[in-house]
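#onboarding

Welcome to the new folks! Below is a worked example of what a typical request in this channel looks like: someone posts a single protein sequence, and someone else replies with the predicted structure as tokens. Don't worry about understanding the tokens yet, we'll cover that in week two.

Example request:
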Amino acid sequence: MTAADEQQLLLRARQGSHQAFGQLVERHMKRVYNLAFRFVNDHHLAEEVVQDTFMRAYKSLGSFRGDSEFGTWLHRIATNLSINASRNARHTRLVGLERLDFTPSNGNGSAVHEGDVMRSDLINRALTDLPSLQRQVVILRHIEGHSTREVSRILECSEGTVKTHLFRGLKKLRTRLGFLKEEIV
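Example response:
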């Protein structure tokens, strides 16, 4: 789907077309879910965040000014809801390692090695241990693939702030996970 097609769907959704909004949801559902899951590390909670994200987006379609892409706007909503859900979840329970359900995909259908799963768990834990803003920036920039400008729009902060927290977060990850580099080589 091209940007023009998405703009057309957005226009129809603003005019009340549930079908058009449904197509927008289908287009962005997977990325919004992946983003939410990376923040909350819980499938059920991530699904709730996704549902809340699209409900809020639907209710706020009239206020979407188009200063950014629709996907960037959705990611901003999802990020904010994920942060809130993560904070609330920490107050009610502690997420243990057994709750982490991140299984790496090697993309070719062959079996995933136990070492790969362990490395993925270590990376996921290291991300979870980063301070909130550093984790958000690393996830949005390097895992979700947003540009620095898009991350600054999603988090509603300056590009300089994004770069600072990205640098600090990546430095902490390199320190914490430096031993993995030796295993890979």
